[in-house]
Design brief:
The chain is an alpha+beta fold. It is about 55% helix and about 20% strand. The protein has eight helices and nine strands.
Amino acid sequence: MRLLLLIVALGIVAATVSASFFTVGQTQQALVVRLGQPVAAIREPGLQLKLPLIDTVMLYDNRLLLLEPGAEQIILGDQKRIEVETYAQFRIADPLRYFQAVGTDTQARSQLAQIISSSLRRELGRVMLPALLSAERDRITDRLLAVVAVDAKPLGIEVVDVSIRRANLPVETSQAIYDRMMSERNREAKELRAQGFEWAQQIRAKAERDRTVLLSEAQRDARASRGQGEAEANDIATTAFGQNPAFYDLYRTLQVYRTALAPGTPTVMLSPSSPLMKYFLTGPSP
């Protein structure tokens, strides 16, 4: 009986000693709560002491945590409606204040998401859509981070980064803009085609006029050159005739022979006494 009591007593003592210690990991921080009231915040890792059955230990992560709120529609300063997705990085900076303000991680994330949403609406409600597509976007996110960090501090949360991951027009707005852009581009294309057709007609008409002028000038120059050549040829022939009438007569007769005796020419009947036949009968005079 005594042995049994001793074993029970030792078991109670062992359980009490075991319940008096807890371990804080390298990536954790702890808050000791005694009968519902926080009594100590522990940030150093290692084995720690608490009152058994009285103290409760709340363990929190001391690393950077990621929050990704869902996409939400926001109206900009120019009354444009866009869908915005954000993300934030934060850490639990004050476990005591964190426990008193939010209690649980789920509640903390919910409140931080609300803070980000309201700050985002307030900041973007003062800017125009082109600002989100330019270098102004970095300044907007800097202002957003500053506001969110101040609003989240009473929760025991340190916000180190808030960024806009995506900012797009809603699907219905994007489709309407796309349709309007397509209509505008089609109209511009029709205008350009009509303008191009008009320019093509003008170019063709000018080319045709230039062609007619060039041909007319070329024919005029050709006639002038031909007339000048014929005049020079006549002068040469006249000079040659004057120098040797017999040779000129022979040359002219041979030209007639070449033309009259060419293949495909009509048949000509001449008498032997015809002057044209004299060179066939006697040959040229020496």
